[in-house]
Amino acid sequence: MKKIICHLDMDAFFASVEEQKRPHLVGKPIAVGSPIIEGVGRGVVSTANYKARGYGIHSAMPIMTAWRLSEEARKQGKDEVVFLPVDFALYNKVSAHVLEIIKKYAALVEQASVDEFYYDLSSAGSFAKAKAICKKIKAEIKAVEKVTCSVGIGPNKLIAKIAAGIKKPDGLLVVEGKQSREFLNPLDIRELPGIGPKTAEIFYKQGINKVGDLLAFSREQLKDLMGKHGESIFQKARGIDDSPITEFHEVKSIGGQTTLNENTKNPIVVYDIFKKLSDGVFASFSNGGFSGFKGIAVTVRFADFQTQSSSKSFKEPLGVRDPSTSLRTGRKIFELEALRLLLPYLDLQKNPKSKPIRLVGIRIEKIVP
After folding, report:
1. I want to staple 49 with a disulfide (CB 3.0 to 4.6 A). Which of 15, 114, 221, 299 is the partner?
2. Which architecture does CATH list for 253-368?
3. CA 100/CA 120 separation, integer angstroms
4. CB count, 10 Å around CB of 251?
5. Burial class (CB in 10 A: 0-12, 13-18, 19+), 186
6. Residue ranges of the domains in the chain?
7. Are 1 and 130 in contact (CB under 8 A)?
């Protein structure tokens, strides 16, 4: 039986979900990420919708750079970008719904991230039938969640992932096994997963611009040039990928962190931000359907970029869904212990020089499936 692997990638996921949450924003440029107020903010953009990308805004961009691009666009008479904070609890909820839809059509599904999924449709028997199934999946996601996705279909995870990215947004592309080389060769080397800007620059200087250019290099030559990473690049350039679809991914921790708009020594300001962050992290935990957790960790970064962490472990799991130790009880203990871990950084105990705080983070650890 030939392998038929699919990769489903949600389109500008965070921003698309926000549009459904706030219908009046549909059609406007949106950037989701760290808070920014009147042009002042720190941190980065998590997701930008396609209209905002037209302004040059993209994920991982410093939030203030995105703001400046928005201002430039506004001065040119274009729509001003709407900046929104992340809402992980909401995104995880929609992601769970998408996963359930995919599972109706595919027996083996791997959730690679909150907005990416791999699934095996080898049982369909042909790429044509797999394409028809993927069209149904796309249509149901759009009808139920009002968001779009792009799907790549190929003989392995590598080809499927690249195919999905090529056809964004709301696309569907099939690359059969015999077409893999023809598909890969003309692509820029940046399209290969694992080749980022720095690695690409090394290749560009060697006159290697397209994936097909890599075929002239032996395994040993690529290893000499890129070290251990050279073996992976050698395989990917030839469309080789034997990695399996792993249905169950054990989640060991859930967390988040927030960069404050400005460094502060004010404990009330720090706590208010920390509380909102904690609520979102616990909501993600509770929506995940886990049995409990046995650890909490808090991270604080000071204005001088020194980072410190503290953690607390429990002998018995908290947050389990039974009458004796309810989810509500687990949440109360979580809030109390998280505060106990944070407080020493707000006084002289763990901050003897009273340094301003730049970032706070919290994680639920040792999660029990």
Report:
1. 15
2. 2-Layer Sandwich (3.30)
3. 15
4. 14
5. exposed
6. 5-10+90-237, 13-86, 253-368
7. no
How far apart are alpha carbons 193 and 219 in whole angstroms?
18
Look up residue 27 and give its two tokens: 């059609």
235, containing H or E segment: helix 229-237
Q: Return the biggest CA–CA distance within the chain.
A: 67
The CATH class given to the 5-10+90-237 domain equals alpha beta
Q: How far apart are alpha carbons 195 and 75 in whole angstroms?
A: 36
Which class would CATH give 13-86?
alpha beta
> Contact, 191 vs 164, CB < 8 A?
no
Contact 123, 110 (CB under 8 A): no
Q: Tokens for 351, please give them.
A: 């901050």
Residues marked as catalytic: 116
Q: How far apart are CA 83 and CA 311, in angstroms?
A: 33
- 322 burial (CB, 10 Å; 0-12 / 13-18 / 19+) is exposed
- pLDDT by position in tens, the chain (length 369): 789 999 999 999 999 999 999 999 999 999 998 877 766 777 789 999 999 999 999 998 989 999 999 999 999 999 999 999 988 889 989 999 999 999 999 989 999 888 999 999 999 999 999 999 999 999 999 999 999 999 999 999 999 999 999 999 999 999 999 999 999 999 999 999 989 888 999 899 989 999 999 999 999 999 988 888 899 999 999 999 999 998 765 667 888 888 887 899 998 999 889 998 888 888 888 777 777 888 999 999 999 888 899 999 988 887 655 444 455 667 788 888 899 999 999 988 898 999 999 999 999 988 887
